[in-house]
Design goal:
- Helix 2 runs parallel beside helix 3.
- The chain contains 13 helices and 15 strands.
- It has an eight-stranded parallel β-barrel with strand order 3-4-6-11-12-13-14-15, surrounded by five helices. A two-stranded antiparallel sheet has the order 1-2.
- By secondary structure, it is α/β, with parallel strands linked by helices.
């Protein structure tokens, strides 16, 4: 058998390569578990299939959703997803990663209300007939911030292996971070007014929340020790928990590890940054549980630094190879360790779009064997926004 085939046509083909490489990636012939309802907080998800956040770049220059935005999410909602994890939404126009990124603001509130209404109305056409769990991802783009198409990085620290050549970084100050904590709280409440069921804080893929977790070399109260590197996250979540106005659920999309060499990485083995060490990740999970976070969307890597780690593509310049299975196996194993040690916290497993059409067999196997509670699909969802409905029809 060729190890470099672009896609596996059957679950047995996938099993053969997994076995050949000595990996532990569960696969199930019965995928009915994906259609089971699942409860998060007071909300019962219609099924365990999650649309993982993908930026469609359909907003106005001011970050307002447009008719194109409505249509994208109408398709997904009508397609039968139990959860719509909406795309990265900046907390201001000054920290967007592109001119067409969503921005949550007072000025855009009515448009976001309309977006939620469109999503909920479209769900009546789905196989479930039930509204999805709508999660808005709030973010600060950090070192990937752009203004007028020009990179204007806002970073937690300088890092030779991450800095863009010839581009000057602005190292965000402790005082700016203190102000930003309250802004995330304010925009969480605004997201609640828009009608979202949950907000999510983007602590992955090298964006600002993630970079603060990596800030070993930063001085001051937001860098150095574990206590300091997690301070921003802890402060925001604590303030939201204590705000009597806010009832919307909190979730976090977080890197389990990022495969960036020390001292610029998070949860990597000290001797081999391609391997993980989840000691600090377990500590974060304990804190998230204590702060009433309802779910964790688990991912890994930094697509701007080493794409194969978190996005093992089967096309383009990143050629399919055994490495993609090894990378995915690391993700599965890390997720399994976290889910089994923190059974009360629902975890969404990512990177499942890697191998179609056996992605559903992999997702079902991982849920059945306790790797995660929910299955997140990104690229596959964009290409086939109605695939959950098709699973219902075949079941």
């Amino acid at each position: 058998m060729e190890p470099n085939k672009p896609n596996y046509k059957t679950a047995d083909e996938f099993r053969e390569d997994v076995s050949r490489l000595g990996l532990n990636i569960p696969v199930s012939d019965d995928i009915s578990v994906l259609l089971e309802p699942y409860k998060i907080g007071s909300f019962t998800l219609p099924n365990r299939i999650v649309f993982n956040p993908v930026e469609f770049h359909t907003a106005t220059q001011g970050g307002m959703p447009t008719e194109r935005s409505f249509e994208k999410y109408r398709q997904l909602s009508a397609g039968g997803f139990g959860t719509l994890w909406l795309e990265a939404t900046a907390i201001s126009n000054s920290c967007k990663s592109s001119e067409t990124q969503f921005v949550m603001s007072d000025e855009n509130l009515e448009a976001f209300k309309e977006l939620v209404r469109n999503i909920n109305d479209a769900s009546k056409q789905s196989a479930t007939g039930k509204k999805p769990y709508n999660v808005l991802q709030l973010t600060h783009s950090g070192r990937y911030t752009e203004k007028n198409g020009v990179h204007t990085p806002i970073v937690a620290f300088n890092a030779p292996i991450l800095d863009m050549p010839g581009v000057e970084n602005h190292i965000i100050t402790d005082e700016e971070l203190e102000v930003m904590e309250d802004e995330f709280v304010r925009l969480t409440y605004l997201s609640q007014l828009a009608g979202f069921d949950a907000v999510e804080f983007k602590a992955c893929h090298g964006y600002l929340w993630c970079e603060l977790l990596q800030a070993h070399t930063r001085e001051g109260k937001y860098g150095g020790s574990y206590e300091n590197r997690t301070r921003f996250m802890r402060n925001v979540l604590t303030k939201i928990k204590n705000d009597k106005r806010i009832t919307v659920d909190m979730t976090v999309r977080i890197n389990m590890f990022d495969a960036i060499a020390h001292p610029y990485g998070w949860c990597n083995d000290a001797k081999n940054h391609r391997l993980y060490d989840l000691t600090e990740m377990h500590a974060v999970m304990d804190e998230l549980e204590a702060l009433n976070v309802r779910a964790v969307n688990a991912t890994m890597g930094n697509g701007y630094y080493e794409p194969m780690v978190n996005s093992p593509l089967t096309f383009g310049k990143y050629r399919p190879s055994d490495e993609r299975l090894i990378c995915f196996s690391n993700t599965v194993n890390a997720c399994r360790e976290l889910q089994q040690k923190h059974p009360r916290m629902p975890i969404v497993l990512s990177a499942l779009s890697m191998d179609t059409p056996v992605a559903f067999n992999i997702a079902a196997g991982c849920i059945n064997e306790g790797v995660a509670r929910l299955a997140g699909f990104a690229r596959l969802s964009v290409k086939y926004p109605d695939f959950p409905n098709k699973i219902y029809k075949k079941s």
